[in-house]
Amino acid sequence: MRIALYREMTMNAFRTHLAFRAEVLLFLFGQLFKIFVQVYIWHALFGDSGQLASQAGSISIQEMITYVVISSVISVFATNDVIFKVSSKVSSGEIAMDLIKPMSFRSVVFCQTFGTNMYRMLFELVPLVIVSLLFFHVQLPSLASGIAFLILVFNGLILNFLITYTIGLIAFWYILIWQINTVLNGLIRLFSGAFIPIWFFSDSLVQFSYFLPFRLIYYEPISVYLGKVTGWQELLAIVLQQVAWIVGFLLLQRWMWSKAVRRLVAQGG
User: Fold this and answer.
1) What angle, 0 to 180 degrees and rounded to 10, lies between the N-to-C axes of helices 105-120 and 61-78?
2) What domain range includes position 181?
3) In the predicted model, is pLDDT for residue 29 greater than 50?
4) Whose CA is closest to 155, among 36, 247, 61, 93?
5) Which regions span the lipid bilayer (predicted)?
6) pLDDT at 137
7) What pLDDT was estimated at residue 218?
8) Minimal CB count within 10 Å: which of 8, 17, 129, 214?
9) How far apart, in Å, are the Cα atoms of 111 and each of 104, 132, 207?
10) How far is CA 8 from the centre of its chain?
C-alpha cells in the first residue's frame, strides 16, 4: 500500500514535467553550451603542453574534458528545486495538505524530486551523454572504478537532497529564503569541484573544503571515475564520510522538522 503510494507520487511528478517539453531543449542546449565553453577555456589554460601540474599529479587535457562532462552529467540530478519547493509549500499553505497525507513530508518531497530525476534521465541525460561521447571523446573508467563511481554518485545525490531539504526547512521560520539558496548554490559551485576541480585549489582552500560535504557530491566521485583514487582504503574513507554526513543531516532535519511542526501548529497553520 505504502509502496504504491510512493510510486504514484513519483509518477505524478514525472507526468507533470512531460507538459513542459520546451524546457528539455532549453536545458539541453544550456548544458551543451556550458560544456563547450568550459572545454575551450581549459584548452586555453592548458596551452600546447596538454598537461597541468596539480595536487593530484599531472592532469591531461583529456582528463579535464572528461571531468567537465561527468560534472555536467551529475548536475542533471544534483540540480534540484527542493529549497524552492519547500518554501513554496510553506508560504502558500499547501504544507497543510501534505501533513495529512499518509506519508512523511520528506517522503513527499523526495518522491517529487525522484520523479523529476526520472524525467531528466530520459529526456536530458541520455541526449547529453550521446552528444558528449560523439564530440568530446570522454574517457571510460575501468569496471571497478565505474562501479565505485556509481556508488559514490548515488550517495552524493542522497546527501545533496538532504542538504537542500534541510535548508528548505528554514522556510518554517523565514518564509522567503532565496538569499540562503543563493549562498548555498555559490558554496556548492565553489567547494564541490563542480566547475574547478579541488586538485587545482590552494592548500588552504583544500583544507577548508574538507570541512564541508560538497566535494562528496562532485569532486570525489569524478576523481574515482578518472582513477585518481585507486586504493580501497581511500575509497572506503570517502564512502564513510558520505555516510557520516548523510546520517548527520538525517538527524538534523528530523530535529528541525519536530520544531517546525510545533511552530506551524502554534501559529494555527
Assistant:
1) 130
2) 2-266
3) yes
4) 247
5) 20-44, 64-84, 122-140, 146-175, 187-212, 232-252
6) 80
7) 95
8) 8
9) 11, 29, 35
10) 24
Residue 200: exposed, middle, or buried by beta-carbon count in 10 A (0-12, 13-18, 19+)? middle
Rounded Cα gap, residues 179 and 185, in angstroms: 10
Q: How far apart are CA 104 and CA 66, in angstroms?
A: 39
Amino acid of residue 249: F
Mean pLDDT for all residues in the chain? 85
Cα 97 from Cα 194, distance rounded (Å): 36
Amino acid identity for residue 170 in this structure: I
Determine the Cα angle at 183 with ends 16 and 81, to 5°: 5
Report residue 30 as a C-alpha cell: 544550456
Task: Pull the grid cell for residue 268.
Answer: 494555527
Spatial CA neighbour of 177 closest among 248, 90, 76: 90
Over residues 243-266, mean pLDDT: 87
Cα–Cα distance, 2 to 10 (Å, whole number) = 12
C-alpha cell at 97: 495538505
Name the least confident of 115-119, 176-180, 261-265: 261-265
Q: 132 burial class (0-12, 13-18, 19+ CB within 10 angstroms)?
A: buried
* Rounded Cα distance, 235 and 229, in Å: 7
Domain total in the chain? 1
Amino acid in the structure at residue 160? N
State the Cα–Cα distance between residues 166 and 95, nearest whole angstrom.
15
Side-chain-side CA neighbours of 167 within 13 Å: the count stands at 21
> 10 Å Cβ neighbour count for 5?
15
